[in-house]
């Protein structure tokens, strides 16, 4: 039986979920937030804490893939999201820093992309300063754009502030409960089911990065991207917030006055391209160009979704009877876009007038070409894994070193075997959502699906993504009983 009956059940406690819940509660609704992780435990909490309207070369991409009115709506959307977060931080007295944000070319061949972004952003209404030489950047660069008066904040502090504001507005937040199903009742209340309880509401908001319900083919409309972060300390002069365009994509760097520095880069499709630890080393190497005395203290990764459209999807989930809203596809810039998504979703649910940008964006459609791009990428990722699989002898598996994982063939299908904490575990290697063959993530010690982006712990339990069921535990051939699968 449902443990609670409310107006709205929000699934996920990142920026999208908490902003939506806060605004709904301020509008008089009874709201419960259900999250698999503690507040701050998802991708929002793993970001660099850059709240900025300068999103790398986003406008350059928009100018080549969508109408100019949509690019202008993207600018207005982010302006509203930025204003909401800025006001929240100011009124609550949450520590944060007002800083200029820069986009820089770290090599001569990136100068043209700087020019293209400047022109495309100007056409969309975002006024960026173009600089041939930025004195605030004490390293070699080949052109820069500047947007003044942006924000850097500790991401967990931002999420904590949102959570406290939501709680004070009457929102109930339930942590460490993963949603496994949603039973939709368009003419009544829908039921959100976790492993521990059920929550009933008139409307459900899926603020989970990607919709956990397979409706609308969003697994084909977005690409799951993993972004690697490196944190450390430095005695170098304080840097502004910057995104550097380089040969391996872009890297965003944020530094605090006390010398703590975070760099996020190496965005890549989940499970594709080899070792995640190696990617962390590449991010560190890039960061050392800006802070040569870096002392690395940590490395981790976060996940976001790149829309093939190319603007984030926000609104009603198809085939949800008008009872389910969702947001997905922020392409690594989820703080301002996530807050804007909360504005759009809450206003729709409360029956308030939409912002003009929301109406403009909602009228664009993902055409067959974009869906085809997603399908080709997914099939290519899955095929690469199947082709590289081989049968391993039991002795090979027992030789796995600590922190290693391997996918291998067995008579019953592909199996994923890992060794962590000196325990050898084996699980089915077939993702429970899309059937893709999982890949070992040596930075996070997880099994990642390159088809849908779902991620699993070494025991098969779901860590992230749209999979609602764990990987099946299987016996490890030849493993000593003390280290067998559990």
CATH architectural arrangement of the largest domain: 2-Layer Sandwich
Oligomeric form: single chain
CATH superfamily of the largest domain: D-Amino Acid Oxidase, subunit A, domain 2
| Rg from Cα | 22 Å
Could you give the count of β-strands? 25
Strand residue percentage: 25-35%
Structural class: alpha+beta
What is the CATH C level class of the largest domain, in words? Alpha Beta
Number of domains: 2
Overall form? globular
Cα-to-Cα separation, first versus last residue = 32 Å
CATH topology of the largest domain: D-Amino Acid Oxidase, Chain A, domain 2
Number of helices: 11
Largest sheet: 9 strands, mixed
- Proportion of residues in helical segments: 25-40%
Low-confidence stretches: 366-375, 381-388, 481-486
Mean pLDDT reading: 88
Walk me through what this model shows.
With 486 residues, the chain is an alpha+beta fold. It folds into 2 domains: 9-158 and 217-362, D-Amino Acid Oxidase, Chain A, domain 2 (2-Layer Sandwich); 394-483, Rieske [2Fe-2S] iron-sulphur domain (Rieske Iron-sulfur Protein, 3-layer Sandwich). The chain contains 11 helices and 25 strands. It has helices spanning 15-26, 58-65, 68-92, 111-124, 155-168, 218-221, 276-290, 334-350, 356-362, 368-387, 394-398, and strands at residues 4-11, 31-34, 50-51, 97-105, 129-131, 144-152, 172-174, 179-183, 190-194, 198-206, 222-233, 241-246, 249-255, 260-269, 295-307, 313-316, 324-328, 404-410, 413-420, 423-428, 439-441, 446-448, 455-456, 462-464, 473-474. Strands 3, 4, 5, 6, 11, 12, 13, 14 and 15 form a 9-stranded mixed sheet that branches. Helix 2 (58-65) crosses helix 4 (111-124) and helix 3 packs across helix 9. The chain is globular. 51% of the residues are buried. Mean pLDDT is 88; it is low at 366-375, 381-388 and 481-486.
